[in-house]
User: Fold 6-phosphogluconate dehydrogenase from Paractinoplanes deccanensis.
Amino acid sequence: MSEVTTPTARIAVIGTGAIGTAVARRLLEEGHAPTVWNRTRDRTAGLAAAGARPAGSVREAVSSSSLILVTLTDYAAVRECLTLPDMDLSGRTVVGLYTGTPAEARSIASRVTASGGRYLDAGVQTSPDMIGTDTATILYSGSREAFEEHRSLLGLLSRPRFVGEAPEAAALWDLALFGIWYDAHLGLLRALDTVRAAGIDVDDFADTAGTQIGHVIAGVPGTVAEMKEGSYPPGPADLTEHLTVVRHLIDLRKGHSLGDGGLPDVAARIEALIAEGRGGEGLTATVGPAGRASDAPIRVAPRAARRDGET
Ligand SMILES: NC(=O)c1ccc[n+]([C@@H]2O[C@H](COP(=O)([O-])OP(=O)(O)OC[C@H]3O[C@@H](n4cnc5c(N)ncnc54)[C@H](OP(=O)(O)O)[C@@H]3O)[C@@H](O)[C@H]2O)c1
Assistant:
């Protein structure tokens, strides 16, 4: 993160919300003078006072820059800003720092490349206050050439990690990682709510809850090894025993404000495996083997509907 970068790189930050402001401030700290544009103009005032160059329009920001960091709310906003008529992106790299779906990342990548630019999609696995620190991670995918060219500059924002040349790879990683967080955190909330409803002191429960989450963390390497090897030893419990617990949990969670967490689907999957005579295997059998990365194309769900003007 302390790599030397050239302060003469021409950078634009499109969107100066929480992430965009943190990104622009970090660039200013390192001696860059980014061009900044925001829909609500006065949100660039603080950055301008610190040395950034406010642009009057997206087009002006884009035309003054070779590296364009787009930090907007969502894909719809990115699409609106980057698909102005005759927007020339030739020789420019666009980096999309927003949370979106793999299909959206693919769509914006094809728009950028059709306009002559290179595209990097970015999964922001950090909060604005962590931008520029060693614990921040931002995942990138798309043009490897663009990533390598701008690696040291992107390294000012976070540990940059390139996760593949498919433009949608970073969005896929980003959402999958968010999914881990939601599943674990919502699991914690369901458990706290359940014990509280039974009159149990949540403080008493908290330490043990933390230990339980720790078991999931400790199990990551073994689970990945099982997927890679395609062998599913039962570990502390086999599928038949898991099914009993899962059914108890479905019962316990009936009427719960956060629902049952999809456990009926899990039970159905385990029942199917038991019916195949695989009740003695472990839980990893429910998802099956991992293909080798080089063989496995990234699968993106087809779009439900095509909106006017979308490609
Ligand atoms: N904040 C986080 O902790 C965090 C963490 C990881 C990922 N992310 C992702 O990073 C992205 C940016 O998040 P943020 O926290 O910076 O959001 P934010 O503070 O709400 O800022 C959103 C930005 O998008 C602009 N915008 C929204 N709609 C627009 C439109 N139609 N046309 C032009 N500009 C538009 C806003 O402009 P105005 O000022 O005019 O409204 C503002 O600059 C999001 O996709 C978010 O999910 C955020």
